[in-house]
């Protein structure tokens, strides 16, 4: 299939530090497939091009499509991509939230039983999994009625969800949440992996804070 060839070309171009024409191949791959492994390659390519926000969104989509069956290779590729940014001004790409908005991960706590729900408000329609947790979170798009009701709520505000009252405990960039989640999942799933030895924990903390 042509998308397989395109992925191979993208990898070769990055290996040879060729940027001209790379985005055209990436756009083609995105139009042809929703395979997690291919989308992660494209995410890494956009990161290579310096478009970190697009890279984050494509990586998010890749891991979301893999669901709760994300494999070791995919996690390694994702973590490697994020760690290559440590020496740069990674904080410039991190959004902070004063209130619930698009691409925000909301940490909500039930007023009665203290149940915690992680709810991601996504800007794109392709994320709708309210009844099934992916990355230990429920996902809805901005157009979802629940999102419309929650938009604008601030930390410590009381909101209604499924007929129950919740307190907004924390708001964070969904990409930071994902990095924390995948890093912890990889550490728990592959504690003896040699890949972990390349990760500087001090640098990792820089990304998390």
Structure description:
45% of the residues lie in helices and 15% in strands. With 209 residues, the protein is α+β, with helices and mostly antiparallel strands. Helix 2 packs antiparallel against helix 3. The termini are far apart.
Summary keywords:
209 residues; 5-stranded mixed sheet; single chain; disordered C terminus; alpha+beta; 8 helices; 5 strands
How is the topology of this model organized?
Blueprint: H1 2-15, H2 22-32, H3 36-48, H4 52-66, H5 72-83, E1 104-110, E2 116-122, E3 138-141, H6 145-150, E4 158-161, E5 164-173, H7 174-189, H8 201-208
Parallel strand pairs: 2-3
Antiparallel strand pairs: 1-2, 1-5, 4-5
In short:
By secondary structure, this protein is an alpha+beta fold. It has helices at 2-15, 22-32, 36-48, 52-66, 72-83, 145-150, 174-189, 201-208; strands at residues 104-110, 116-122, 138-141, 158-161, 164-173. Strands 3-2-1-5-4 form a 5-stranded mixed sheet.
Largest sheet: 5 strands, mixed
Rounded to the nearest angstrom, the radius of gyration is 18 Å
* Helix and strand run: HHHHHEEEHEEHH
How many helices? 8
In helices, the fraction of residues equals: 40-55%
- What is the arithmetic mean of pLDDT? 88
Distance between the ends: 42 Å
Number of strands: 5
Give the spatial strand order of the biggest sheet: 3-2-1-5-4
Proportion in β-strands = 15-25%
Stretches where pLDDT falls below 50 for ≥5 residues?
200-209
Query: Strand pairing plus helix content: what structural class?
Result: alpha+beta
Task: Name the overall outline.
Answer: elongated
